[in-house]
Amino acid sequence: MPLATEADDSCHAEIFKSWRSFSENFTDATRMHVVTYCDSPEFVLKLFDELDDLEVLEVVVGDVDDYRERLIDKPKTADRLERLRCEGRLVIYLCETKEVHSKLYLIEYEAKPDTTVSAADESVSLADYGDSSSNDKPADSEVRVRIIVGSPNLSKNAWSNQTNMGVVYDTAKGSTLHTEFMGLYEEHRAYNNKGPFLEDLTERIELSGDDREKVINLYTEGKVGTTDELGEIHGKLADHIDSEVETVNLVLDDGSEAELPEDGSAVDADADSDSEEESDSPISDAPKAQINLSLRGYDATTVDTVSKMKDFDATVSNDTLNLTPSAFHRYTKEVFSVPTMKLNDAEDRLKFHHDGQVYSMTSPPPADTTLINDALADMEAYFETVDNHGNSNNPTAVKAHMMEALLWFFWAPFANRQARFYRSHDVDLDKALPYLYVYGESNGGKGTFTEFALGMISAGRVESAVDADEIGKRNVRNMRSAHTTFPVVVDDITKQKVHSLDTLRNFWKGWTDESPYPMFAFISNDKRPNQWFRNRAKILHFDVNFQTSRRGEAQVNELISKHNPLFSWFGCEYLAHDLRLAEDDDTLAEVRETMLALYDRAERNPPEYFPHEPAERIHDTGRSRWHDLLERDDVELSEEKDTLVISFDESMSYEIHTYKRDPPMTVRVEKRGLDLVIKTPDEFYEWLGEDTATVARPGFLSRLRSRFSG
């Protein structure tokens, strides 16, 4: 292959040290022909979003064993890809007959009619080739082409710790050089034998009598294989990293495993924390340890799935997986959206993997009680922002619900310990280990609370939740293989989306003590979901609206960013508590006791809003709503056999569903037209409270209750 065939051609070698330096070659591109080992459907769409002049993209993908699976539970992504395909703007070819590791880029830029380019200038700006002001199609000789042959993939995944090299040619479209490379591109394309990707989806849409959305939803539902072996491999990798990477104590954050000094002094673990945002620079403090794991004996499907780690600088050779701790972290972050966290029962220590490091998350409380007092005060300062910057009819209830939510976050990493205890007593795990559902109006502080809670349980290493668009039934299933106890927190989710995640109904079915499962938390603007989820969730209401205030925002951000070692001390104390079967359904009973024990150590009184029992039970906004309802003149109450009937006015027809969802699951409520039938009046009265028997129509409810009880 000649390096230059015409006077106007040029050639140079280039080292691409970051994704940014490589992707600059795409600026002002109008057409691209690419051969790459790996990419992702989302990244292809991102190119069309970011490159305004891109008219056509044609990609040959060399690693395609699961390309169709990359669209499972992603109907919106499939819809956009298919539309671009039909418009003739996107063509994806999969190499079914051979695994292709080649990387080749042919990038075209349409030049302005008056643009001249010096062949001797190898630093020519690609921007000079674009934005043609002429409506006429330029001749081939006016279309400049940049050809890159080298190691970079069309994927951003591994660039945070990767350098690539390529040979760069600049030539004109139709030149001998361009023609030769187009021939090589077409030779790679010949490894495809099933036609362009998504051609079958287009055919289904055209032939089906169903609407487009239904066809695409069906197309993106896929078979989910076994996850047992995958979870086992993830667990072994986590164990290897635990044993081969020095553990950092996050209270000390000094790179050692030393115990806390007698005075309990600690340093700011947040000072050198890496941002969760992707960076072009490699992780400077990532350990260089190489982890090797044999894949012999595992199912071929499992090995193929594990081979995806090659996108993150891992290698698979002779049935052996080789990777660094930082590569495993990037893989888990990309695939599962949460880091690895696991409880070492032998050591009674919770370990957390992040940025290729291993951190200890449990440390004994310091002897200096002032430090514990300060940590508790900092925690309470966050809740006090409700008083300082929020508007609420009941700030005490809001703070209690916030504290309850934080107690859930403190408990979630230890949920598998409780699962083991419950399993030994034949307790239904799916109903005994509650998910968390936090709802409230916009500007209700849900997002900042999520950031605060995640920061508390990760020492500031994790700040952001998972976007609701990134979660689906398949993602929920796959989390069983993540081998992590770090909670999956899904932000800005609708209750309809929660209903669709019916995998959560029996998420713990098949759980064994060999592989931990994570808990799920959902943050929403919608009111509580329907029955099956309510029976499996702790539902909390942030009934507050925060004023827009730069001062308030600065105060909250300062509280969030301040390192607080309280969770580490809590974890050590909690593991020392024996679990027991409570008389009620309060799963967090031992969590409350542990937190109160820290208050005792600090010789500090807990705040008056501290929930000594579930906050949703003490401060039930639904119960308050029913109190108000019973005072209305347009609502009628009557007996019908052994039931209580509440009859609504027609003007309240849309509100009936809200009132139906308010009582706990022990109160059986049935909607019948404009009536709500209370099938268990005694439980209903108990929920309303003794003081509500005569709340409305003096003596009516008390007389009605006496008739039922007599």
What topology does this entry show?
Layout: E1 10-16, H1 19-23, E2 31-36, H2 41-50, E3 56-61, H3 75-86, E4 90-94, E5 104-110, E6 143-150, E7 164-172, H4 176-189, H5 199-207, H6 212-219, H7 228-244, E8 247-249, E9 291-294, H8 300-306, E10 315-317, E11 320-323, H9 325-336, E12 341-344, E13 349-354, E14 357-360, H10 369-383, H11 385-389, E15 390-391, H12 395-411, H13 415-424, H14 429-432, E16 435-439, H15 446-458, E17 466-467, H16 473-478, E18 488-491, H17 495-500, E19 520-524, H18 531-534, E20 537-541, E21 545-546, H19 550-561, H20 566-576, H21 589-601, H22 615-618, H23 621-629, E22 636-640, E23 643-647, H24 656-661, E24 669-672, E25 675-678, H25 681-688, H26 700-709
Parallel strand pairs: 2-3, 3-4, 8-14, 16-19, 16-20, 17-18, 18-19
Antiparallel strand pairs: 1-7, 2-5, 5-6, 6-7, 9-11, 10-11, 12-13, 13-14, 15-21, 22-23, 23-25, 24-25
Helix pairs in contact: 3-6, 12-15, 15-19, 20-21
